[in-house]
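Support request, please re-run this one:
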Amino acid sequence: MLVLHQHHFRGMDKKRNIMIFCLLMAATCCPVFSAEWKATVVKQLKALVSSCVVVPCSFTHTGGELPASKLRGIWHRSDVKTQNIYHEDPTKILDSFKGRTQILGQLGQGNCTLEIIEIKDHDNGPFCFRIELVKTPEDPPTKEKFSFVEDCVDLKMHHDEIKPELHQPKTPVQGKPFTITCSVHHTCPSHKPKLSWTRGKADEISEIQTNMNFGNWRTESILTFIPEEKDDHTDLTCTAAFNGGLKSSTTITLYIKRTENYNHIIIPVTVAVGTAMIFGLLCIFMVKKYKERIAELQSRDGSMWNRMSRLSRRFRPNGPGPSQSDQRRPKGDTVEFGNSPNNVNEKSSGERKVFKPRIPSPKSQPKSCNYREDLDDGDDYMNTADLSVYGNI
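Re-run finished. Output below.
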């Protein structure tokens, strides 16, 4: 009886030791395996056929950090978990996805971002992420596997070109810096589109890539230049080259606002004033140079200068001229009274006949070209006539 009782106590001790061991193992493994695992994946993304797409993905757990060597990330179809589109072992990937997929993030940091290049029409998904715990990268996975089938991504394919957009905040002004931005939206930040301009140097262009969240990105190219008059009514084109060879472009026409100037007025006035000043200075120089010569010519009595002066005075309308009495006075005719045999005929009756002197008409009197000489002749005539007439009386 005593022997049986001792054997019973030994069996209880063995069971107790096993229970203690299990409790210790559970306490050790609980922070890792009993932690809650969660994944965050974009639900839907647009993908340009023949280009690429990057699916943002992250996962978390409350058991602390785990080394990447003990984690294995897998992407598979949502309906069939064995159809992998990405796996560390290339032999376990579907043939249609081999060489086209990779995980860009670090699993040890909770980043499970997936990249798919050379997008095809059948790459529509949905695709889900699964994490497996392994002892070593070469070992098979443990029983702990987490497939996040409720957080999968669905890709929407489109074949249309994605046109870049041009933004100009203001009207370009001649001679002032002008900035214009070309932007394009895409879902492939690992192979972002390349933007190019039909003008502009390298130092005039800058690029910015912005995360618009939920897997959407925007690439911008900023062109800054100084427009000139020749740029008015010219075309400016921005071209976007996507990964895979697709290209699209957008063109606008520049309308340059010219700065106000008065060159069309200032230049002719300046030329006219300058010409007048040069001509005036030339005249002053010529007068000073030939001043003594002109004075010498004017001082000569019989010079051509004096002759021209006298001639100009004669043709003046208000200048002096011969009087009417001088014009009526005849030249060379004499009037005789008395017993002159040449002028008196005696008749038998004893009467004398007196002949009146003939007075020429002013209209028949020829105009004299030399007033001084005509005046002198008239004076001689008056002297002779006076002596003849008044002497006989």
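The chain has a mean pLDDT of 76. The CA atoms of residues 253 and 348 lie 130 Å apart.
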